Amino acid sequence: MIIVMKQNAQKDEVEKVEERLAEMGFGPHRIEGTGRVVIGAVGEQKIAFPTGLEVLAGVERVVPITAPYKLVSRQAKETSSIIKVGDLEIGGKELVVMAGPCAVENEDQLLTIARAVKAAGAQVLRGGAFKPRSSPYSFQGLEEQGLQMLETARRETGLKIVTEVINPQEVEMVAGYTDIIQIGARNMQNFSLLREVGRSKMPVLLKRGLAATLEEWLMAAEYVLAENNFQVILCERGIRTFETSTRSTLDISAIPQAKELSHLPVIADPCHSSGNWRLADPLSRAAVAAGVDGLLIEVHHKPAEALCDGPQSLTPENFEQLLAAVNPIAAAMGRSLPGKARPGMAEGL
Amino acid sequence: MIIVMKQNAQKDEVEKVEERLAEMGFGPHRIEGTGRVVIGAVGEQKIAFPTGLEVLAGVERVVPITAPYKLVSRQAKETSSIIKVGDLEIGGKELVVMAGPCAVENEDQLLTIARAVKAAGAQVLRGGAFKPRSSPYSFQGLEEQGLQMLETARRETGLKIVTEVINPQEVEMVAGYTDIIQIGARNMQNFSLLREVGRSKMPVLLKRGLAATLEEWLMAAEYVLAENNFQVILCERGIRTFETSTRSTLDISAIPQAKELSHLPVIADPCHSSGNWRLADPLSRAAVAAGVDGLLIEVHHKPAEALCDGPQSLTPENFEQLLAAVNPIAAAMGRSLPGKARPGMAEGL
Amino acid sequence: MIIVMKQNAQKDEVEKVEERLAEMGFGPHRIEGTGRVVIGAVGEQKIAFPTGLEVLAGVERVVPITAPYKLVSRQAKETSSIIKVGDLEIGGKELVVMAGPCAVENEDQLLTIARAVKAAGAQVLRGGAFKPRSSPYSFQGLEEQGLQMLETARRETGLKIVTEVINPQEVEMVAGYTDIIQIGARNMQNFSLLREVGRSKMPVLLKRGLAATLEEWLMAAEYVLAENNFQVILCERGIRTFETSTRSTLDISAIPQAKELSHLPVIADPCHSSGNWRLADPLSRAAVAAGVDGLLIEVHHKPAEALCDGPQSLTPENFEQLLAAVNPIAAAMGRSLPGKARPGMAEGL
Amino acid sequence: MIIVMKQNAQKDEVEKVEERLAEMGFGPHRIEGTGRVVIGAVGEQKIAFPTGLEVLAGVERVVPITAPYKLVSRQAKETSSIIKVGDLEIGGKELVVMAGPCAVENEDQLLTIARAVKAAGAQVLRGGAFKPRSSPYSFQGLEEQGLQMLETARRETGLKIVTEVINPQEVEMVAGYTDIIQIGARNMQNFSLLREVGRSKMPVLLKRGLAATLEEWLMAAEYVLAENNFQVILCERGIRTFETSTRSTLDISAIPQAKELSHLPVIADPCHSSGNWRLADPLSRAAVAAGVDGLLIEVHHKPAEALCDGPQSLTPENFEQLLAAVNPIAAAMGRSLPGKARPGMAEGL
Predict the structure, then answer these.
(1) How confident is the model at residue D346 (pLDDT cuts 50, 70, 90)?
(2) With an 8 Å Cβ cutoff, are C167 and D168 in contact?
(3) Distances (CA, A) of A67 to A4, A63, A118, A312, C247
(4) Stretch D184-208: mean pLDDT
């Protein structure tokens, strides 16, 4: 790190900072500028920011030099990670497609949708049994009963399952039913939960928080890896901005950035980010063109009657069309979509 | 709610929406505009947004009319609530002052600070035993040992205690040590945790999330009240914006807004919002002038060596000065500060 | 519009609002809800928001129903507009590629870059002669001399020219040299300037402001169209958010939204939005996949010595690679890139 | 500045950066860290960011050390500036109160309001003759006729005048009528306009842009000072954030920050920032408690019929109450309000 002293910092203030750096195990390296002193702190130890040095007399600010994450970093592992979920590989040449309803509502609904997304080519069925809802009066999910329905759907269709967990106490139970555990955007910095899913050794789908910087998102993943669980899939799902025409703003730049800084696979959730199924198509194409390793799509056979998030859910027909539209983009990226052969968009549209 | 149809919506699309409204128990009320149809839905039932109607053919958007919160609303309870913590009243004429270190580090540290803030006039000691840190490598708190130290400090000083809980499983244990349970900004939408602290029937200090709208913040409080626990204190602690000169942006407008929309007391946290102890003074004065019912201040006797958030911690001397600076503002607002008689700022500065 | 009355609004307050609506020429249409009254205002006239009704006693809020823009709207013109610049068509099947340096520095620099981007396939040369810089001490552009160099480059290469104007007084002069006038992000709501470029009847490239909502952006375009100049090209260039890893956040969702709401062509500027040339590639691909009609790219033969925005400038080689990478995405979208035949990415990379 | 090299930067890449620094006139100062090299650049010259060094091979990023502003800085002038407008001093012990309608509508309206705000104690009359409106169909102001009415109001009441200019060409004309020239938020980075008002040598009220960082705001002021016009008053008027319950978010922290970094006076505009007259009261009190040197308040005798911004306008009665509410806060800050003696709030409310 670099300690920038104030322009009028006194000689003894500079010395005091250097002493403190030495106590912290850093080799202080002073640069006498024309207007002020700047001190480089040389050393290997990782420290947390803010450091405490900020409050010493004469200090203007402290500039971190190295990123705070370690295990998630490309410097720790140069090759892109492939997360294996049974015979499914996430992060390879074939894109992963996860699809299904926002919430598991009943067995009929789930099986109808599961069969439809399977037929369209999805490999993973999503569906919430524990729903974090902004209102206590909204449908909160079927809980364990919902997990049982997901298990039934898995047995019937062969799809893998991804479902959200919201309480550290329930991680073990959820892990017993699912293939991938989802951490939702609102829980991205629920560190008790992150540690618990880390300990579960299950593949984890980690959604970015609505106000989380790229660095904080990677640090949240670091919590899981620090428990010796390296199976993390990052999911960009939009950030909160001033723009109100979409529910949140898909941060398309975060996709190549996350893939450059980290070795973990990255997928995108175009439905939650926009809150509008009509945008799922262009946003999915854009995400694939930006380099994602997969898509998470909300599908419901009767969106108008869905117990949650109907407006951002595609019908099975729309979902088929979305995959058809994404297919030529995937091909252009040297990637492929799972499932049946598809006509290219240039031909098909 | 109001359903706004598209300009080119067909007659049968309008009828379909009205049928669906009737099924949902609403009396549809059609307005034929010059350019389009708008349908008012009359009825008492609360429904969650989005409603599903958004995806019906011909619908442009659905506009909620009533706020989604009930129990926290001023319409539910016109008079401002006063939360009682033993003999302490929060929300009354006297402002509440909560102060202490970011983290409990050891007994000496805690007692030193506790005595200092008590002497300056604080009524509540804050101190974290479970720390939600963005890095897994940062100090995570002393956990139950830290709670025991807080108990010791309470016994020694008579201060009430407020401390954070981050895991639903630990609510009962934390409740056994503290007077007020804090829900941190990162957990504002950790609904399992909110429900659990609701069930605990303890006073709850609910910090606003960094990306939470005013409405979402009140809805989070609603989760606690919905468990029949009405003892919630709202705490404005800054929101995330593009401005980087402060750690977050204290949303000063949210203070009068929250107090107008809700009957709950509101306090402010000038240290976390700015990340800079030098701003604690003007922000505390501003918050009191905007109508808060109290302040939450970080105090550390050795900020440069604090295990967390040193740069935003005041020394006991600075804390005394802050209260002296706030005192005349409180008086101007017809409020008072606890503790010893203070000189007014106009005289004192 | 809809006027939502307060829950406790009095009968005479409701009547007062209805009277005022009648005075304003609206037919008031009252809906008696279970908890409150809501009034629909029926009429054709466009009024500005806020309306003044907001301050009448008993009024809680006023909800606009129709969008405030007219001429830019798809309702005004259903087919997508194609802007003609000589023999160049913007908004058609072929994507437009505009490329060149941030600032015109000297004739050698400009011609070197112009020839390179021409060779790579660009149809339009960009280059600033009047530079809006955040510091008065930064290079402010060569002004008219720079425009003359652009003219020379046009003559030598046959490229069309796009350059920024920052002062209404200079519109006529700039129009004498350029083919397309650019309005920069900082001037998106410089209404004097918008009106002046409207009157010039020149094609206008309108960048979105850093804090402009989609609606405000379209309203800025409306200023130009209201002067009877329909040749506006919208340019998404990123919005300001809390994320600091990029200079701004490319709002990828705004691309399909703008194209759905408006008939105007939309292009993207991946360099300014990210501030990082390494992201130009994935962001260009994403923008094309989201449906843009063209790209605006910064190219400099010596980025490290550029007088402005070097870090976001591509070298001519990188620019060639970017087009090669974008080409198969364009093809997948049923679009084409100008210039020489290119290998597809799946083969080429 | 500090150049942070990548972890794997080669020796010759480091040397190349040092050579380039030397060419730019900086003394390079290398620090060999355990993981990477960091280079301090020592020298007095101001350079613009980005610097171009960012694109050199092996460079990770460039960290500025010194602020980019000079003349506006407290380091350039330690004592707080007092701007003199005739016999009025802005930035002294007495707060300045500027009040009046959003737009000048007609002579009757203006004189009625002018007399009312004068009676209540205001020293400056605000009123727009050139209105930057987001819609071309909204009332755009009476232009020079409006300026003549302001002159009449000045003659009749003795109030000073502040009014906005939006076009560089009109600066001279506006300067002939007004005492203070206002630069609106949308024009904060209209550099042609800033330079022109700088040359006018008139006092300038510079509103912060909706997406402007504190640093960009100070740099905009620097444009005026760089023309040798030191009479700039900064005006905080809210920034754009995700929160929708207010029109924008008053950045209360920016007030003490601007006053610490700069010697210029700072005032606040509680009406524009909130868009809601009901918040003018608490926000004005908060701004004064945070240290502003004055307030800018919208007042209209018939807000419901105002041609612009009625909902954020106070009636003359509300304006009187606002000053009465602010008065004891001002006193608590050791400041005073202009005009008649006022009861303190503690007594008066």
Answers:
(1) very low
(2) yes
(3) 19, 11, 41, 36, 18
(4) 97
Which of D26, D62, D66, D69 is best to mutate for the A interface (most A CBs within 10 A)?
D66
Q: Which of A11, A33, A63 is where one domain is finished? A: A63
Closest CA to C319 of C307, C327, C331, C330: C327
Give residue-wise pLDDT tens across range A191-231: 999 999 999 999 999 999 999 999 999 999 999 999 999 99
Looking at the structure, do residues D148 and D239 belong to the same domain, yes or no? yes
Interface chains of chain D (3 or more CB pairs under 8 Å):
A, B, C
Name which of A38, A66, A244 is nearest D65 (Cβ-Cβ): A38
Which of these three, D14, D34, D63, is where a domain ends?
A: D63
Tell me the per-residue pLDDT of C138-187, one tens digit each, with 9 for 90 and over: 889 999 999 999 999 999 999 999 999 999 999 999 999 999 999 999 99
Does C69 reside within a domain? no
Side-chain half-sphere exposure of D242, counting CA atoms within 13 A: 25
* Contact assessment for residue B28 and residue B40, using Cβ atoms and an 8 Å cutoff: yes
Q: For the domain that residue A141 is a member of, what is the CATH number?
A: 3.20.20.70
Q: What are phi and psi of D39, to 5 degrees?
A: -120, 125
Contact D289 B291 (CB under 8 A): no
Return d(Cα D328, Cα B289) in angstroms, integer. Answer: 10
> In this structure, are A165 and A277 located in the same domain?
yes
Residue B321, domain member (yes or no): yes
Least confident of B221-235, C38-52, C148-162, D112-126: C38-52
Q: Are residues A258 and A127 in the same domain?
A: yes
Q: Residue D217: inside a domain, yes or no? A: yes
Tell me whether residues B50 and A139 touch, CB distance under 8 A.
no
Single-letter amino acid code for the residue at C319: F
Q: Which domain holds residue B154?
A: 83-348
Q: In chain D, how many domains are there?
A: 2
For residue C110, pLDDT over 50 is answered with yes
Contacts of B247 in chain D (CB under 8 A): none
Provide the whole-model pTM. Answer: 0.94
ipTM of the complex: 0.93
Residues sharing a CB contact under 8 Å with residue D154, sequence separation 6 or more, in sequence order: D125, D160, D161, D179
In 3D, which of C96, C95, C100 has the Cα closest to residue C313? Answer: C100
CATH code of the domain containing A22:
3.30.70.1140
8 Å CB contact between B289 and B329 = yes
Q: Which of D243, D244, D272, D273 to mutate to test the interface with B (most CBs of B within 10 A)?
A: D243
CA distance C317 to C314: 8
Q: Let me know whether D247 and D129 are in one domain.
A: yes
Does the pLDDT value for residue D345 go beyond 80?
no
Same domain for A125 and A37, yes or no, is: no
Residues A151 and A201 in one domain: yes
Share of chain A above pLDDT 70, in %: 97
Let me know whether C117 and C55 are in one domain: no
Dist. CA D17–CA D40, nearest whole Å = 11
Half-sphere exposure (Cβ direction) of B136: Cα atoms closer than 13 Å: 24
Burial class, D308, CB count within 10 angstroms (exposed 0-12 / middle 13-18 / buried 19+)? buried
- Residue C71: inside a domain: no
Same-domain check for residues D37 and D8:
yes
